[in-house]
Amino acid sequence: MRFISKVAGLAMFLLLLTAACGGGSSPGTGGASQSSGGPQSTAAEIPSVAQTSPENAKAFGAATARVFVCNGCHTADGIAAAGPTWKGLYGKEETLDDGTTVTVDEAYLRESILDPNAKVVEGFLPDIMPTDFAERLSDAQLDLLIEYIKVLQ
Ligand code: HEC
To answer: Residue 6: pLDDT above 60?
Structure first.
């Protein structure tokens, strides 16, 4: 079983890698109306697989975070790096650099990924996180990353 899940994980990693590269060359607009098939439509099926269990969300989410090098700045184990850790992030009260707080929900995660400087976390610097993920992430990859962060409790 362990071996099989490792192989499945590797296959998914390669799939996401292909999807990431393919996504770069296609315009980010259009979203759901894209009907070109290929990696885009394959990647669209991943979030539903990820939602079948927290283990799947973790495996596919971690692979996606590696493809986009999110893990260069964010950890899943509670230790802050250049960016805040994702462990325990979902549902917590996040304090922002203007002293206000916000409850971390899906909408906040989405905004933090697509427009990182819209709300800056206290104790961290603005203009560090890349601001082009809106163009680089497919809808499916974004959903998967959010699903992943949600299960990292
Ligand atoms: C070069 C470093 C870097 C990379 C790469 C990066 N981030 Fe970030 N991220 C940051 C920093 C710094 C912050 C805190 C400042 C802010 O709020 O924008 C942050 C904030 C966040 C937050 C809000 C965290 C909180 O505690 O409220 C989320 C969610 C997030 N990033 C997701 C991602 C995802 C998903 C990716 C990959 C697709 C990614 N980041 C890639 C540096 C990075």
So the answer is: no
Q: Report how far ligand 1's centroid is from the alpha carbon of 53 (Å).
A: 25
- 33 against 83, higher pLDDT: 83
Domain ranges in the chain are 2-151
Locate 107 and state its tokens. 């909408």
Ligand 1 pocket, CB under 6 A: 68-70, 72-74, 82-84, 89, 94, 104, 109, 112-113, 116-117, 120-121, 124-126, 128-130, 133, 145
Q: How far apart are CA 2 and CA 92, in angstroms?
A: 33
CATH class of 2-151: mainly alpha
What average pLDDT does the segment 66-78 reach? 97
101 beta partners: 95
Return the number of other C-beta atoms located less than 10 Å from residue 112's C-beta.
24
More confident residue, 57 or 32: 57
